[in-house]
Design brief:
37% helix, 15% strand
């Protein structure tokens, strides 16, 4: 979506009922899905390994990064349930919060960190205007940096996966996760065509950050728009990434996950059992072969290997 269309979309979005927004997007994605079968969910060229590829530590077959964008206060209410689900199965993940869209719970962030999970920043307002202009971005970057410092966070992801990687040097980050290997259904659909992290260097400076594209389809796409009923596509894509020794990076939203004691909005949620089934499948089929770490830990590893 070009900048003009993107601006128009976010101007009229508040005036369109949520159910109608979803219905329009569902019909559009159904038509588009048939046309992009050759590049989604797998883009073959994305398997190319980085130059001087040194492999994953401990000879692991692939890296596994689990992340969650907490878009709303409702999603924030599901975070502990999601953390407990992952922890019970031996996984760790990062939770990214929107600083100025809802009241972010400091006690929740402290609890997540105390259990070995990570906290990151997800935009500022989640209004689609972060990249409206360079001046707008720079102005908001100062506020984002305040939250990065206050939360002791080193990672960022922009809402709706909007991105201008060269602008993001204004952020005090060690890594960004605002891109994807291939996802023709995103508003800004220019994939980075790789299932590996990569460095984004600032021209004329030594400064750089690690870019980590998500490599599994987002849950909103699969379960809210496509209305899939199981984790088959996640499993299919993970098998391919594992074969190519890549990075499995999944972004899910607690806003759309329905737990037994906390039901979601009809037509906008999927059962937590789907996510649980996927994690159990990973443990049963790839025990000892995956490197499940936090994004900040992978960023540190990647800098050590490639930032010279």
């Amino acid at each position: 979506m070009n900048p003009i269309l993107n601006s128009i979309f976010y101007q009229i979005k508040p005036m369109v009922p949520r159910w109608l927004q979803l219905e329009i997007r569902r019909r559009a994605i159904k038509l588009k899905r048939r046309k992009v079968a050759s590049k989604w969910p797998i883009l073959p060229i994305a398997s190319k390994k980085p130059n001087l590829w040194c492999g994953w530590p401990e000879k692991k077959q692939f890296a596994l990064i689990l992340t969650h964008d907490v878009d709303t206060a409702k999603g924030q209410e599901n975070c502990l349930d999601l953390m407990n689900l992952e922890k019970s199965l031996g996984f760790r993940s990062s939770f990214n919060f929107v600083p100025q869209r809802y009241q972010v719970s400091k006690s929740l962030m402290l609890k997540l960190k105390s259990h070995g999970f990570e906290v990151g920043v997800h935009g500022l307002n989640h209004d689609g205007k972060l990249f409206k202009s360079k001046s707008t971005f720079n102005s908001r970057a100062k506020k984002i940096n305040h939250y990065l410092n206050d939360w002791q966070a080193v990672g960022f992801r922009a809402p709706a996966m909007h991105h201008k990687l060269d602008w993001m040097h204004a952020l005090d980050i060690e890594y960004d996760m605002s891109t994807f290997d291939t996802d023709p259904f995103e508003p800004q659909s220019d994939g980075v065509n790789t299932i590996f992290p990569f460095l984004v260097r600032k021209s004329g400076h030594a400064k750089c950050y690690v870019e980590m594209p998500y490599t599994l389809p987002q849950d909103f796409t699969l379960y809210v728009l496509m209305q899939e009923k199981n984790s088959k596509i996640w499993k299919y894509k993970l098998e391919w990434i594992a074969e190519n020794q890549g990075m499995v990076l999944l972004n899910t939203h607690p806003d759309y996950i329905s737990f037994p004691d906390r039901k979601g909005i009809e037509g906008e949620n999927y059962s937590a059992s789907i996510y649980e089934d996927f994690l159990i499948w990973i443990k049963e089929n790839y025990d000892g072969l995956y490197w499940n770490i936090l994004p900040k830990e992978l960023a540190k590893f990647w800098r050590q290997c490639y930032c010279n």
